[in-house]
Design goal:
Order of helices and strands: HHHHHHHEHEEHEEHHEE
GO molecular function: phosphorelay sensor kinase activity
Pfam family, one: His_kinase
Largest sheet: 5 strands, mixed
Number of strands: 7
Shape: rod-shaped
Number of domains: 2
Helix content: 55-70%
Protein name: Histidine kinase
InterPro entries: Bact_2-comp_sensor_kinase, HATPase_C_sf, Sig_transdc_His_kin_internal
Keywords: Kinase, Membrane, Transferase, Transmembrane, Transmembrane helix
Length: about 350
């Protein structure tokens, strides 16, 4: 409703502006109000209304750009608007020669039109400007409130995610000491899982070296192998050049997890490679799948891949690519990260 009423403002503005001009011209000459050819008056009032609509549209578009970049040069802004308004005289001259407008008093009529039109339209511009500045301010405040709410929610989720691994880590230590000394295989499995949790909880900062990350991935792979069939064929390669380069942790693990989770088929094979090419880390993992498995079902199950995409978007904007595809009986994931 409010937006539809906005389109009436130029209409009433044009009527007020034209009648204001008629008051100045007719009464100062002691003529009858709206003296002269009624047809010319109607053309003039339509032109004035059109002019208000024209400037309303132009100024709103112009202001949307100015406000979005926080332009502080208000004087320059108003000088540009005044120059825009001065082009009315060109339209008046052309209209007079075309017989559309009647300027009976010559330069005096031009002067009166400028004196009436320009200040009025500058006031109209100011009203539009204030409206858009207030709207922009309200939008920013709403965005800020939303960001605060999102931040609070994220902090709660982070604290909650920390609590569960801590609980599990402590529980594993308790179970470890309850296992019989003769059951070394179970103790070894718990030690591996504890090492993985320790890395996630304590050993990672904002960024880690690739050597640290690779050590974690190798431990993770070894732990996953404990629950896999002996017929699994696993081929891994980590480039020896990957050592001191920095990377955000736990970006590769979800893709490895998917490979172990969905490996199927007669070959029952997983291939994993991580290489360094210039300043690009290229991570490749493939696993065999059965013919009836579908990439969309795999890709959208759980939250691991979606979380990974979100983290990559935030941590490496315009510096990564992630491709996940199914080629016949192979499920292939390729992650490339630009380190610097």
């Amino acid at each position: 409703m409010k937006n539809s009423l906005r389109w009436l403002y130029p209409f009433f503005g044009g009527i007020i502006l034209f009648n204001m001009l008629r008051v100045v011209t007719d009464f100062t000459k002691h003529d009858v109000f709206w003296a002269g050819d009624l047809r010319l008056h109607l053309i003039s009032i339509c032109f004035t209304i059109f002019l208000c609509y024209f400037y309303d549209i132009v100024w709103r578009r112009q202001l949307s750009k100015i406000i979005s970049i926080n332009n502080k040069s208000v004087i320059k802004e108003y000088l540009i608007v005044t120059l825009q308004l001065s082009t009315i005289n060109i339209v008046l001259v052309l209209g007079q020669y075309a017989g559309i407008f009647y300027m009976g008093s010559g330069w005096i009529d031009y002067m009166l039109i400028n004196v009436c039109f320009i200040p009025f339209l500058l006031i109209y511009y100011t009203l539009i400007r204030n409206e858009m500045v207030n709207k922009n301010y309200q939008d920013k405040m709403l965005t800020l409130e939303k960001l605060k709410a999102d931040k609070s929610e994220a902090e709660l989720k982070f604290l909650k995610s920390q609590y569960h691994p801590h609980f599990l880590f402590n529980a594993l230590n308790t179970i470890y000491f309850q296992i019989d000394e003769e059951n070394q295989e179970a103790k070894h499995s718990i030690e591996k899982l504890s090492d993985l949790l320790r890395y996630q909880l304590y050993d990672i900062e904002k960024e880690v070296t690739l050597e640290q990350e690779i050590n974690y991935l190798q431990s993770y792979i070894a732990f996953q192998q404990l629950r896999m069939s002996d017929r699994l064929v696993l081929n891994t390669y980590f480039d020896p050049q990957l050592r001191e380069q920095k990377v955000h942790p736990l970006l590769f693990q979800p893709l490895i997890e998917n490979a172990f989770k969905y490996v199927r088929g007669e070959e029952y094979r997983i291939k994993l490679e991580m290489k360094l090419e210039d300043n690009l880390i290229r991570f490749y993992v493939e696993n065999t799948v059965s013919q009836n498995q579908n990439i969309e079902n795999i890709e959208h199950k759980g939250i691991g891949i979606n979380n990974l995409k979100r983290r990559l978007y935030l941590l490496y904007p315009n510096r990564y690519s992630l491709d996940i595809e199914q080629v016949e009986n192979l499920f292939v994931s390729k992650l490339t990260i630009k380190t610097v």
